[in-house]
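Continuing the series of single-chain predictions for the mutant panel. This is the parent chain; the variants come on the following pages.
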Amino acid sequence: MDAKRVETISARVDAAVSSPGCPQNGHKRGVRARLMRLFPCSTAQKPSATNQSNVEDELELSAVRHRPEGLEQLEAQTRFSRKELQILYRGFKNECPSGVVNEETFKDIYAQFFPQGDASTYAHFLFNAFDTDHNGSVSFEDFVMGLSILLRGTVQEKLNWAFNLYDINKDGYITKEEMLDIMKAIYDMMGKCTYPVLKEETPRQHVEIFFQKMDKNKDGVVTIDEFIDCCQNDENIMRSMHLFENII
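Parent structure:
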């Protein structure tokens, strides 16, 4: 999950999860819950002994629109075992018979975690980060590849994924406007779940600080190298990179 992750640039917003008047689940639990609930298959139970003899049925999708890659290929491309992939896919097929999740469904699910705010814009950006082929839907491959990175990827892989989230137009750079769009979306999502209540100009002030720190050569954009170098030298960001490890 929860990003964020993904939400790592704003420690203040992360801390707001435990602010007075907000859910008291704790940040790690909140991130886990969001990631697991966004795709119900993530919390699917292990198949019973009766079903284990039918492990190949996950790939029999004659009645659906999208046919996933074979388990062997996904096992080679991710850090999930064959059994984990079977569990994930069984749940995905049950909850998403069409084989894909569209953006509106994604937004509806994500909004459940932030009833005090408007999560639609941030969910839009997060959906686009999962939708790696940019076809307007998240397939099982998209989901499991992203989840593998967020949960079990290296720090470098997680930072690359986070950079892709902030690089809204996917041109290989993060502009100040893109960073501001993401930051505003995060604050909109948190709604009243901040203390003290944030002023309207707060997101822009935070972006000015972060952008100046990241844009080493002052050319007005942040490259992937600048982003990773800055994050790797920030203790708060590095700690957040470990929130996603081995929680399935």
